[in-house]
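REQUEST ID: PR-0412
SUBMITTED BY: lab tech R.K.
PRIORITY: routine
TASK: structure prediction, single protein chain
INPUT:
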Amino acid sequence: MESSKVTGGGGVQIHVVETGNPHGRPILFIHGISQCWMSWERQLNSGLAKKYRLVAMDLRGHGQSDKPRDGYVDSQLWADDVHAVIQKLNLDHPVLTGWSYGPLVALDYVRHHGEGSIGGLHMVGGVTKLGSDDAMAAITPEFASILPDFLSNETEATMRGLQGIIRLCYSPEPSAAEKFLMLGYNASVPPHVRQAMFSRSFSNDDLLQKIRKPVLITHGDADAVVKPAAADQHKAAMPHAQLHRMPDTAHAAFWADAGAFNQRLQDFCESL
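STATUS: complete
OUTPUT:
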């Protein structure tokens, strides 16, 4: 596993890890809010590495990337972070694989830099809008109930919120060691980062209907964070998209059934 830093939007240093076949098609993994590149451990350390160039970035404010006080509400900055990783690492038409909040960042990139330099888009348990009644309608009541703690400045409340998001994302229940690791990288994200990311208000409805590159939508049928119905809405907006439902899997479908997830991702990449 190689680690490096890339200068992203506004000069923010973005941490990136890379593994796999350096001559294979790149897959760029973009994690969700309050997570980090380690979310994708079951992809980075899998059979995918034999064929594909696997790259995972820490979003600004997350993991080992810079954590500035501001710079989280401007879509151009998010877009430029992804663009910088693609350009600096010379990623040849990567498949952007975004989880949860990750598709928002991938779509920021497409909005500002177009889709010409990517091979395809993979949305995993994703949302495509924020800050409206329509956006909240895609969120489960279980996730809505922990949001006040998840976005709190108070240490005890924050820890309840972070433990809650881990509980909702992962099923079957992670081991004690896995939960401590997950809680650690969730807690490394300052509250102001989560607050700013959720303060954004926008919709990508206009953009989805313009996307022509191949799209794969993956969603766990037991997702307790983003309602499975959201995947149907994304499919309706992008009729050419492939919809992959994963039965009995939660929000982190790529973790719960990594074998099935990785195989479907490989099939998608081979179809490009």
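NOTES: Residues 101 and 184 are 19 Å apart (CA to CA).
REVIEWED BY: pending
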